Task: structure prediction
Amino acid sequence: MTEEIIIAGFGGQGVLSMGKILAYSGIMQDQEVSWFPAYGPEMRGGTANVTVIVSDDRISSPTLTAYDTAVILNQQSMDKFESTVKPGGVLIYDPNGISKHPTRKDINIYTIEGAKLAAEMGNTKIFNMVVLGGYLKVKPIVKLENVIKGLKKSLHERYHKLIPLNEDAITMGMKHVVLK
Amino acid sequence: MSEIAIQDIIKPENLVYEKTKLMTDKTLSYCPGCGHGTTHRLIMEVIEELGQENETIGVAPVGCSVLAYEFMNVDMQEAAHGRAPAVATAIKRLWPKKVVFTYQGDGDLAAIGTAETIHACNRGEQIVIVFINNGIYGMTGGQMAPTTLPGMKTATSPYGRDIATMGNPLKITELVAQLPGTYYVTRHSVHTAAAARKAKRAIKKAFQNQLDGKPGLSFVEVVSNCNSGWKMEPVQSNIWMEENMFPYYELGDIKVDGKLLSK
Amino acid sequence: MGELRLMKGNEALAEAAVRAGSDGYFGYPITPQSEVIEYLMAEKPFERTGMVVLQAESEVAAINMLYGGGGTGKKVMTSSSSPGISLMQEGLSYMAGAEIPCIVANIVRGGPGLGDIQPAQSDYFQSVKGGGHGDYRLPVLAPASVQEMSDFVPISYDLAFKYRTPVLIVSDGLIGQMMEKVELFDQMPRITDKEINEKYPWATNGKPKGKERRILTSLDLDPHKLEKHNFHLQDKYKQIEANEVRYELIDCDDAEYIIVAYGSSSRISQKAIQLARAEGIKVGILRLITLWPFPKKPIDELVIKGIKGFLAVEMSAGQMVEDVKLTVRERTKVEHFGRYGGVIHSPEEVLEALKTKIIGG
Result:
């Protein structure tokens, strides 16, 4: 199994940390992982993206031009990455703030109301976990228990008390991801 | 009266002065009359007197004293031009109980190595810097130094240092004294026996500060002559130094025990 | 099994520095490698192992701190990126001359000049042909994964002290900034003062009682003596060339074509050969692990085996390809494919270059 993912959105949406948790979850189940962010001036403009690969085998290129899955969280990223999903692949996006919705017919498109659900849960910071939940429902490449282990590894101990909230957010995302 | 042979004179009971064994027997490469040799000797005498022969690491510069390690009989490293304070910083950080010093000329310390000098001083590295200021580049053949006096003729200021186009002589010693990282900053000369004795006391105080773990860097400037570069006889060059260098580079302590002295 | 972590290449390098028993790290921040000193300052190795970490005033000062520290027999390292490494060339030349061990990691970015901060491999010439002034070479290791960013630190120290030379770890922004799974090696002890005195009689840490003082210098005004010193250095480089070549052959057994690459380019090329093999093209990779000494022998053997062509894939306008050509000596085709200035090749582009420049060309 090899899953090649791009996660893209605004800085501050938790794009990089979502990728990091996913990568850590892969390590928890003995898989190979890579996480490569766009860095530097690209980020200063307010956009952030990260390529995450989770695989049973040695990972070749950590940078790619085509992905199995794109998780898209703003319009600029939609413009840039809709075309990069492999035919038959998956595009998951939060419709909040999206004016030009994806139009491709050869891929599976899902929506997840991440921003809305996180606001309803009373904590906008768990937005990325809601989205992660939506992704994991569509692509269950890592087990939830390994995600929790991954969270523990990637969060400082003083934030471990927030793990149940993050777990709730993931569950919420799993429930509310919708095939378009 | 029988003839006196030299063997009759060379006897322990006739000994009035002995070269410190921390100076090697190699003939100094300095011009006769130059202050480098005297300053070398003073530093080595101080290290011997403080019993630090086996605990000292010296860092030599680039310039006339590039070969200081040939004469100073302690462990030595030869640094790139101007970088001695950085080299010494790491040695001291990694061997905090050892005694570490740099020996640098004006081009090395106050031109190409200004950044390393300022930052080692500002960090308060517990090292000793001995700075020889003769207002000229001796090694390379008498070019202008950052400390060359206004109007002074050198190979690269053949009509005299023109302040308007060549800038002012840099009083780097006064400059580093302003930094909170320096603990002891002083200026001396070695052109007379009395002056050399005073300079030695200052050098000793600088090394003692380091041995005592005093917070900060000890910086000793020695204003020296360069009779070749200045194109003078040695004696004449010392008179010129007294008349021209000392008024600009005033001798004496500038900062003692971390406190600036008011003039 | 050692501790598993998800780390950036830069962080793995920093953690490995602590675990390899470094005595000191002296550095100056520059993108894309500032995480190294940031990690060390946060990690406080001065409390963990007694390792000194100091932010220098410049790369010039940092490399000269290595001169001082390495000259006393301590394990010292720094890291920087291309413009900073250019500033360090003076110090590296002096250290080569005075035979002072240290590690310098270069997380290469696009150039020339200030360039940009994206990954590049355009410092190959500077790394393998000397870099500073004078006749010298430095061993150069090129990690291709976060794991190797960690593993190559103790290997580099071994080389540095075995041959009394600075060793370069040449990586780039891609490997520095990406995170991968890394298995950390266990903490190694720092060398004791006694061990330094026993193993490194050249180390200037205070003249031993009853013995001659030590001098570390790169100066000898007598040309005949300096020539003799240079003979000694060249002998040393010959030994390194004979003993320290490292490389990896990937899918070369049945290969008709070979991609020569290192670091990030070799990772991208691995994807490219997967794509190629899916189309029935038999291509393998010769991955350089040491850029110097250059793996001449395996290339020679591949030529003799009848390889139809070599494609040098590098994030530069054509630097490593010169060494490939010097080794192949026109016995078969050698072409270059490069993206540069901070642009990374895509695997598809590499495949396309293989088809047009080597197979169909």
Notes: The domain at 2-179 of chain A is CATH 3.40.920.10 (Pyruvate-ferredoxin Oxidoreductase; domain 3).
